[in-house]
Design goal:
Layout (H helix, E strand, L loop, with lengths): L35 H11 L7 E10 L4 E9 L2 E6 L9 E4 L4 E4 L1 E6 L4 E2 L2 E2 L4 H10 L2 E8 L7 H13 L5 E7 L5 H13 L4 E5 L10 H14 L2 E5 L3 H13 L6 H6 L2 H18 L3 E3 L5 H12 L4 E3 L3 H5 L10 H6 L12 H10 L15 H4 L19 H11 L5 H15 L17 E11 L18 E11 L2 E5 L2 E2 L16 H4 L2 H7 L48 E2 L2 E2 L25
Parallel strand pairs: 1-4, 1-5, 6-9, 9-10, 10-11, 11-12, 12-13, 13-14
Antiparallel strand pairs: 1-2, 2-3, 5-15, 7-8, 15-16, 16-17, 17-18, 19-20
The structure holds N-(aminocarbonyl)-beta-alanine and zinc ion (2 copies).
Organism: Elysia chlorotica
Keywords: Hydrolase, Metal-binding, Zinc
Cofactor: Zn(2+)
C-alpha cells in the first residue's frame, strides 16, 4: 500500500544541511523557537517535573533477563530506590497500579541514524522526533552513529553529533563512531574518544565503496586498535566491490528500479563479507559485533563462529525480523523504494523467522533497528537509478512490539529473553549494565509497563516518526507499552505521550566490558604464535635471481620442501607439552607439490 507523503515539501524548514558525500563540515541548526518542539523544551526548562519525581509502581510482574517476580518499585530522582514487597513509600508519590502487566527495563535500540547526512540528503527523523518515537514504543535509550566523512577528524565529528543530539533528545542516548578512513591520526583520535569522550564502539564499513568503505588491511588495523583500547569493533558486512560491479551490470541491463538494489547485493555478498570480517577479527584477536544481520547464511556463520569459541555478536534489526524484501518488487516505485536499505531486507520469505529462531536461542544476541528514514521526495533522488536511493528504513518506534509479536506471542521466546534481546544484552555489551537494562535498586528509572495482551495496528498515519512511510504498515501486533518512564519521568501515561525535548542525556559507554573482553586476553594467550628455537641454517643459499624483463614474477628458487628422512630437517610441527599439536587433525594421504625435487609431478607423493 502506498501512503500520501507527509512533510514532502521540505526537509523541515529549520534544518540547514550539506550533503554528506561532499562535505566535511556539514552543519545543522537547532530548533526554531516557532516550532512546537521548542515550546515543549521551554515548558520543561521553566516548568515543574517534581510531581513525577516520586513514583510507586505496585502489583506488577517485574521481568529482568534472568528472572521474573512479583514486586513493587519505588522511584525517586530518576533512580530505582526500592524493589520488593511491603515497601515504605514517602508521601507525594504518584502510584501506578501495574496489576496484570509486566514491568521491564526500557528498550535500548543499539543502532539508529537520526538526522544522518547520507547520500545527498539528511535522514528526516532527527534526534527529537526519533527519540519521541522511540519512547512511544517503549525504547528509553538509543545508540546512534557518528559518521565522519573520509578525512574528517573523528573528534570533530563526535562534537558535531553531540551538538545535534544534546539539545533534542527526549531520552538518553549513547554514540558509536564510524571509522571511515584509516591513518595514524585516526588511531590517535580513537584513544581520545575512548578515554575522554565515552566512545567504546567503532563501526567499519565493508560496503559503500568510495565513501565509507575500508579495505581489509585497514579493517585489521582498526580491529587491533580497538583491542588495544578494549573497545568493540562493529562491522557493516557486505562486499562493497561486488556491489559496485553488480549494480553497474544491472543498470546496463536497464534495471534501474528498487528491485535492482536487492539484486545487486544478494545474500552471498553479505555472507562473504561476514566470513571475512570474522576471520579478520579472529586474526586480530579482537571481539566483533556484526550490525544489521539480514540473511540466513550470515546469521548461520555467526552462530557457527560462536560455537567455535570466537567472540562474535550478531545484531538483527526490526526490519529483518518483521518483514521481507518482496516489497522491492512492488509495482509502486515509492513503496518499493521505501524498503531500500543495506544490506537488503531479504526477498526470501523464510528469512525473518530464521533470524528470530536464532535470536531466541542466543545464536544472535540483541536487536537494533538501523532506523534511518527518508521521505518520498528524498527517496526520489534515486528515481532513475536505484544506486542513488538513500538507504534506510524505520523501526525505532515499532521494534519492541514487532519482536514481542514475532518472538514472544509466537512462542519462540519467553518474556525474560525478550528483555535480554531488547535491552539487557545491549547494556552488557556496551558496558552500561546494570545502570541500564535492569530493574534493580540503583538502576536508572528507565521502565516500561508492558501489556502483552493488548494489540495495536502499525501505521504511518498514527506513528510518531517524522517519516511518511512505515515498512510495518497494517501489521497488528500484540505488546503495547502503557506507561513509559525515562530517567524517572513518565512520558507515556496510560497510552498518552508527553515527551520533553532535551530531557535525555548522553550516556558514556566505558571501555573493557567484561561481557565482551572477559575472555579476550586469555584467548590471545592461548593462540599465541609458536616460535621454535633452533640452530641457524648454515648451508648454502642461492643467489636471488635477477628479474626477467618480460616476466613480472621473480624466478623461483629451488623448491624448499625437505624430507624428514635425512634426520637433519623436520617438517613435522613442533610439539606442545610433548604432543604433536596437530595429532588430532585429520591426516591427508599425501601432499601435492607442484615442483618436487627431481622434477615436476602431477601425482601425490
Ligand atoms: O541502509 C542503511 N543501513 N542505512 C544506514 C547506513 C548503514 O549502513 O547503517
Ligand atoms: Zn550499516
Ligand atoms: Zn546503520
Amino acid at each position: 500500500m502506498c501512503l500520501p507523503t507527509r512533510h514532502s515539501q521540505c526537509l523541515a524548514p529549520h534544518l540547514k544541511w550539506n550533503p554528506f558525500m561532499n562535505c566535511v563540515n556539514s552543519s545543522m541548526e537547532l530548533a526554531d523557537p516557532s516550532d512546537d518542539h521548542y515550546c515543549e523544551q521551554q515548558n520543561h526548562k521553566n516548568g515543574d517535573t517534581s510531581a513525577q519525581s516520586r513514583i510507586f509502581i505496585k502489583n506488577g510482574l517485574i521481568v529482568n533477563d534472568d528472572q521474573s517476580f512479583h514486586a513493587d518499585i519505588y522511584i525517586e530522582d530518576g533512580i530505582i530506590k526500592q524493589v520488593g514487597t511491603n515497601l515504605v513509600i514517602p508521601g507525594g508519590a504518584r502510584t501506578i497500579d501495574a496489576r496484570g502487566k509486566m514491568v521491564m527495563p526500557g528498550g535500548i535500540d543499539t543502532h539508529t541514524h537520526m538526522q544522518m547526512p547520507f547520500m545527498g540528503t539528511v535522514a528526516i527523523d532527527d534526534f527529537y522526533s526519533g527519540t519521541k518515537a522511540a519512547l512511544a514504543g517503549g525504547t528509553t535509550m538509543i545508540i546512534d552513529f557518528v559518521i565522519p566523512a573520509k578525512g574528517e577528524s573523528l573528534v570533530d565529528a563526535y562534537e558535531k553529533w553531540r551538538g545535534w543530539a544534546d539539545a533534542k533528545v527526549c531520552c538518553d542516548y549513547g554514540l558509536h563512531v564510524a571509522v571511515t578512513w584509516w591513518s595514524p591520526e585516526v588511531a590517535k583520535e580513537m584513544e581520545i574518544l575512548s578515554s575522554e569522550k565515552g566512545i567504546n564502539s567503532y563501526k567499519v564499513f565493508m560496503a559503500y565503496k568510495d565513501s565509507m568503505m575500508l579495505e581489509d588491511p585497514e579493517i585489521y588495523n582498526c580491529f587491533r586498535r580497538c583491542k588495544e583500547l578494549k573497545a568493540l569493533p562493529m562491522v557493516h558486512a557486505e562486499n562493497g566491490h561486488l556491489i559496485d560491479i553488480k549494480s553497474k551490470e544491472l543498470l546496463a541491463k536497464g534495471i534501474t528500479g528498487p528491485e535492482g538494489h536487492a539484486q545487486c547485493r544478494p545474500v552471498e555478498v553479505e555472507e562473504e563479507a561476514c566470513t571475512r570480517a570474522i576471520t579478520i577479527a579472529d586474526q586480530a584477536r579482537s571481539p566483533l559485533y556484526i550490525v544489521h544481520v539480514m540473511s540466513i547464511p550470515s546469521s548461520n556463520i555467526i552462530a557457527k563462529a560462536r560455537k567455535e569459541g570466537k567472540v562474535v555478536f550478531g545484531e538483527p534489526i526490526a526490519a529483518g525480523l518483521g518483514t521481507d524484501g518482496s516489497h522491492h518488487f512492488n509495482k509502486c516505485w515509492r513503496h518499493a523504494a521505501a524498503h531500500v536499505m543495506g544490506p537488503p531486507i531479504r526477498p526470501d520469505p523464510a528469512t525473518p523467522e530464521h533470524l528470530m529462531n536464532l535470536l531466541a536461542n542466543d545464536d544472535l544476541q540483541l536487536t537494533g533497528t538501523d532506523n534511518c528514514t527518508f521521505n518520498a521526495d528524498q527517496k526520489a533522488l534515486g528515481k532513475d537509478d536505484f544506486t542513488k536511493i538513500p538507504n534506510g528504513v524505520n523501526g525505532v518506534e515499532d521494534r519492541m512490539s514487532v519482536i514481542w509479536e514475532k518472538g514472544v506471542y509466537s512462542g519462540k521466546m519467553d518474556p525474560c529473553r525478550f528483555v535480554a534481546v531488547t535491552s539487557t544484552t545491549a547494556a552488557k555489551i556496551f558496558n552500561i549494565y546494570p545502570k541500564k537494562g535492569r530493574i534493580a535498586v540503583g538502576s536508572d528509572a528507565d521502565i516500561v509497563i508492558w501489556n502483552g495482551d493488548a494489540t495495536r495496528t502499525i501505521s504511518a498515519k498514527t506513528h510518531h516518526q517524522a517519516v511518511d512511510f512505515n515498512i510495518f504498515e497494517g501489521m497488528t501486533v500484540h505488546g503495547v507499552p502503557e506507561y513509559v518512564i525515562t530517567g524517572g519521568s513518565i512520558v507515556m501515561d496510560e497510552g498518552q505521550l508527553k515527551v520533553t525535548q532535551g530531557l535525555g542525556r548522553f550516556v558514556p559507554t566505558p571501555p573493557n566490558s567484561q561481557y565482551v573482553y572477559g575472555r579476550i586476553d586469555a584467548r590471545e594467550k592461548a593462540l599465541e604464535p609458536v616460535k621454535v628455537d633452533r640452530e641457524a641454517y648454515a648451508g648454502p643459499v642461492v643467489e636471488v635471481a635477477a628479474q626477467e624483463t618480460n616476466n613480472i614474477h621473480p624466478k623461483r628458487a629451488e623448491n624448499p620442501i625437505v624430507s624428514d628422512l635425512t634426520g637433519e630437517f623436520h617438517n613435522r610441527p613442533p610439539t606442545r607439552g610433548g604432543h604433536q599439536y596437530d595429532e588430532h587433525a585429520p591426516k591427508r594421504p599425501g601432499t601435492k607439490v607442484s615442483n618436487p625435487p627431481g622434477g615436476k609431478s602431477t601425482a601425490f607423493w
